[in-house]
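Ribulose-phosphate 3-epimerase (Lentimicrobium saccharophilum), 219 aa
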Amino acid sequence: MTHLIAPSLLSADFTRLGEDIEMVNRSEADWFHVDVMDGVFVPNISFGMPVIKAIGKIAKKPLDVHLMIVQPERYFDTFRDLGTYCLSIHAEAVTHLHRAVHQIRELGMKAGVVLNPHTPVSVLEEIITEIDLVLLMSVNPGFGGQKFIEGTYGKIGKLKKLISSSGSSALIEVDGGVDLNNAGKLIAAGADVLVAGNTVFSSADPAGTISKLKNTVPV
Ligand SMILES: O=C(CO)[C@H](O)[C@H](O)COP(=O)(O)O
Ligand SMILES: [Fe+2]
């Protein structure tokens, strides 16, 4: 499978969000990455249901929702109703991860588990065959435009080993500080999905940058 690109709307220009969404619709991007922050799990608040509802009305590509909230189980139904394709929850935010991922799948969504930079891949050992995606944070969550953590390459390698040795078909997504310099190395390490916020939306040619990310070759 060729890698997928998921532009993060966190870095979009909210005064012209509709235009930025239309740009992504027309671009070579595969998914919309939607970052939901509650000011408790992470030290920032992003946007909530009315904004996501508006995004869903015009987005023509699947919504890849990254929940950075405590007790995410409270909102699984709501995110399904908002048209979420893949719902990712932090391993650090739930006590009963197994129950939570099954609830997500039973609602008809793909289930993703997110790991903060300090959380080892080994926490997924007993659940890797029951999830659709692992989202590795390559920055500490909460803000766009942060510096990529270099240890992520090694973590992707460990995750790849766990996935292949278990027979899991989970995708590996990398989120935070992804740019045109590290994309090729991330794909070579085994990343299937690259999230990019600042790199896309602060560029002079966002659609062109998405195209460059999409056509990046492993190095
Ligand atoms: O989850 C996130 C932050 O918590 C964002 O998806 C991520 O930071 C993307 O932004 P950038 O590419 O600018 O780093
Ligand atoms: Fe994210």
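The beta strands are 4-7, 32-37, 63-68, 84-90, 110-115, 133-137, 171-175, 193-196. The pocket of ribulose-5-phosphate (ligand 1) is lined by residues 8, 10-11, 33, 35, 66, 139, 141-146, 175-178, 195-199 (CB under 6 Å). ok done for today
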